[in-house]
Amino acid sequence: MALPSPLNRYLLLMAQEHLEFRLPEIKSLLSLFGGQFINSQETYGKSPFWILSIPSEDIARNLMKRTVCAKSIFELWGHGKSPEELYSSLKKYPVEKMVPFLHSDSTYKIKIHTFNKTLTQEEKVKRIDALEFLPFEGKVNLKKPQHVFSVLEDYGLDPNCIPENPHNIYFGRWIADGQRELIESYSVKKRHFIGNTSMDAGLSFIMANHGKVKENDIVFDPFVGTGGLLVASAHFGAYVYGTDIDYNTVHGLGKASRKNQKWRGPDENIRANLRQYGLEKYYLDVLVSDASKPSWRKGTYFDAIITDPPYGIRESTRRTGSQKEIPKGIEKCPESHVPVSLSYHLSDMFFDLLNFAAETLVLGGRLVYWLPVYTPEYTDEMVPWHPCLKLISNCEQKLSSHTSRRLITMEKVKKFENRDQYSHLLSDQSLPYQGHNSFREKYFSGVTKRIAKEEKPSQE
């Protein structure tokens, strides 16, 4: 594949966590802002340096206003596998593209960034001095420069085998930083209202980005819990709504999840979480409701459905129902009857979720959810399927040596019709995931085996 024109090449400096989630996030955000993902490398893998072709600097800036997977973006002026290759590449970069940032009225500074190696100040100065052939005419200002340029050196991924010379060297003009600070400022540790399974702030923002959440969207979470996913979506300007079967969680009642706190306070609730971050105006409502029996009129209401269903580990999988067999023709219970809580098979939960998304998402809307899997038995064919939804990405996060959860992103590509509700059940693709109905038993079986294995040597 031919490299794109150097006029629109950018260098992304990526964070080294949640590696599988990075590419889908960048692709989703470029799509959201009218850009197209054009690969300038054979593969990105685990490297923190990505070369992308982006149509405009405005799109690059918009991308960085959203991403939590990327640290910074640079307009790439040159790169090579050695200093000589870098300098040669820089000399080929059009001077007319450099001049607006190097004229005599401007101020600038040059930074040196190394990955997997530390340089001395003397080595850094030597690298900066070697760039004197560039037509810099402005003044150096180390505190508040108008323009920042960076030399970025890549020494590979192995901290135990650091090469003498870098694998790749890049030079570019800094454009913008990403939103990594959101991970700390929205940390669950500082959150007013949390539960046993409150979603990590970084992953919440990644999910919102995978869902292409934007201003004035309506975002729904059918397993809302303490509302962490609503907070992330509201931060990006979406109006948020949710449901949960747990009355105590929705109303902020019962025992607290924090250490050294026995009961939840009177103001611990989802609305208070949004208020904490100045996002209360985006809060629509949260209802006590059973996700297996959605009480919605037919129609398309949501721009995105972003959720973390219970897996039966720290939160039980439940639905409402009766212990007695109810004839198929009878759907309503007597008014005096309070439905009991029944188990809710994981496969049923996910097929209900996909049907609900297919019916209520706008065309082009996205469903983003976590799918727990028993790793030794997992295959891609196990991901639930629906004729109205197209699989966009499937990213793994390991939970233990034998279990993981996969972040599934799907997009509605077809209008929902009544016959679509059961069409996926006729497909062979509906069968493989049913084995994961026993995910809880397999999860704890693995834990028990591991504990036994660890205790055996100590007993001997």
TrEMBL record:
InterPro entries, per the entry: DNA_methylase_N6_adenine_CS, RlmKL-like_Mtase, SAM-dependent_MTases_sf, TRMT11, TRMT11_N
Domain Ribosomal RNA large subunit methyltransferase K/L-like methyltransferase: 190-320
Enzyme Commission code: 2.1.1.214
Superkingdom of the organism of origin: Eukaryota
Subcellular location: Cytoplasm
GO molecular function, one term: tRNA binding
Major location (coarse): cytoplasm
Assembly, per entry: Part of the heterodimeric TRMT11-TRM112 methyltransferase complex; this complex forms an active tRNA methyltransferase, where TRMT112 acts as an activator of the catalytic subunit TRMT11.
Name this polypeptide is given: tRNA (guanine(10)-N(2))-methyltransferase TRMT11
